[in-house]
Amino acid sequence: MKRKNWLLAAFLWVNAIGCYADGNNVLYVSPKGDDRNAGTLSRPLKTIGAALGKMKEITAGQQVEVVLRGGTYEINATLEVNCDHVFIHPYQDEVVTISGGKSVTRNSLKPVKEQAVLGRLQPQVRSLIREIDFKKNRMELVGLHATGFGRPSQVAWTEIFVDGQPLRIARWPNDSTVMIGKIQESGVAKEGKEAPFPVFGYQEERPSSWKSVENMWISGYFAHGYANDMICVESIDTIHKMIHTGQHTVYGFMTGAPWRQWLALNLLEELDVPGEYVIDAGRGKMYVYPPAGKMENWSISLLEGPLMAIEHCKDVKVQGITFEYGRHIGIYMENTHCALIKNCIIRNMGGVGVSIGKGTLKAGNQRGHESGGNPASRVVGDLMGTVYQDILFNREGGTENGVVDCHIYNVGAGGISLGGGDRASLTPAGNYVENCRIHDYNRIEKSYRPGIWMDGVGNRISKCDIYNAPSMAILFHGNNHVIELCDITNVCSEVDDQGAVYYGRDPSEQGNVIRYCYFHELSPRHRVTATYHDDGACGAEVYGNIYYKAGSLPVLIGGGHNNHYRHNIFIDSPIAIHIDARMQGWGKFMIEKGAIIDQRLQTVNYKNPPYSTAYPLLAEYWNNDTSYPKGNVIEGNLFYKIGNVVRGRTEWLELYNNWATGSDPGFVDAADPLKGFKDDALIYQRINGFPQLPFEKIGCDLSK
């Protein structure tokens, strides 16, 4: 036995050494190398692009390793991987970073001398502000652009980072927002006529002191609490205290709700806090208030395309690398099979961290009033609008691709966009995100840019920690997806009428499972939900989840059918489950003949296979009064310290074998539900068949 163990150890050691041996199928790269070299350990290449180019010289079908020596690789073009059987990783335990930006020295930050600029700065900071002249440094400076609900996801503007942290655009107020005042022009078209740009009032004195609105933008929730926007300002009327904007939004401007507030951005007059900056693309300069302390590393984001694109290939693995400082996507994948991103850090990107599958682009849709567009590679674009308009849109996301053990944070427009599978045939992709930590992912685009977007058929999100976001954790479309074992907290922190996990307005999106997740500490300020079945969503299985202080409405079933909640735990909320019959009221337009629900059911040919066999109840959708929510089963759930178990009419639900109590049902620690129940907990007596839940498996295993 000892001899067998020794031989096994020797075999593994030899194979490990072989991974780093000079061989025809191993290419070494080092920041100190030379692209004229052979790519051996002793004579490495200098750039990753050169190694990827040399891979094509190797016989097809052979495994190729690209081994990166430690250091930072600054790139000015997307790294393209389009060969099979590729493994890209660091040498041993060396630290490798791929950067889409450029490092600048502290000497590049010069004192401001131009009087026109100094005159706009507050007196106490004039000697502290520094400028970076992008023209002199031979870098492109890209100014701000509109973002918001309905608008396509775009390449971000130029950003600056210090010691790995993004600085923020100067803003007023520094740590809050202010209410929208009287509206002179709402910006909403009437009687088919083109609407003027919105004009609204302000009550505060500070805006009247601004000397110029050059490069000024405003951001906020101007109408609905789920639709954040950022648009430019044309002028300020200080006599009447009116701000004249220079762009439209989808919903215009409204007053009367607590979230309808705004803030100003990118004003020299408000460059007053360390760690802020202002972009003046016209002058080609960025004005920076350096953070306090000794700042070692300054970086500027430059690259427009993805840092890496893996396309039309199989069996590719990228492991142990940090990707940062790009203005768009970190890693893009299209039409791949068994591609794996493992143990990587993806941060400080202007767009989404990872995108699997195509997006779309529609020319002239900068206002966000149109949906759709043509399929496009290496973008997200107007994917949200396209999926809304064309529910069978196939992103060509490939099959069995994964993002595993990754840390994604400080990204601009969502963590991961996960596509794959074909809705027309219900063919699954089997793509997955597993054991990832995703947080702080809406620095630039907030509306409908979740921690993970998932569409298509048969994809999975497992064991992810998702937190610190103004909007959703997970938004999904499609069929037969699984969301499981996730720890979700402090999301939807700004919004109204959104959910941590959200989908809806398409009853053909069935077969989806949400299980064993921990939703906790969600904002109760507005209408915030943990699991949100919007506008007639049907056929979800939701079981084994914990809802602890999970928003004002932990569960919302918005007029849909056949959603099944079982063996969930609800703790310390004023309401547990909201259900309504919106299709009998304000939402009845959705179920009219030929309207959106009818269109979507006809699109999937719901009365015929594969949909009729996969979801037999869907084939009967119109057989009864569709406006009446039916078949929603709530069974075997615990409601502990819940004010009202149901908001809505209880006859809209099938309630049985549940237990509502104000007494401890047997937690090991009621303040930490993940510690589970005692072996003799009362819950096992009061709820027939209540199972042992996998509390210990919930959440990401990565070290913090």
TrEMBL record:
It comes from the Bacteria. Gene3D superfamilies: Single-stranded right-handed beta-helix, Pectin lyase-like. Residues 401-570 form the Right handed beta helix domain. Keywords: Signal. Transmembrane segments: none annotated. Residues 1-21 form the signal peptide. PANTHER family: RIGHT HANDED BETA HELIX DOMAIN-CONTAINING PROTEIN, SECRETED PROTEIN-RELATED. This is Right-handed parallel beta-helix repeat-containing protein. It comes from Phocaeicola sartorii.
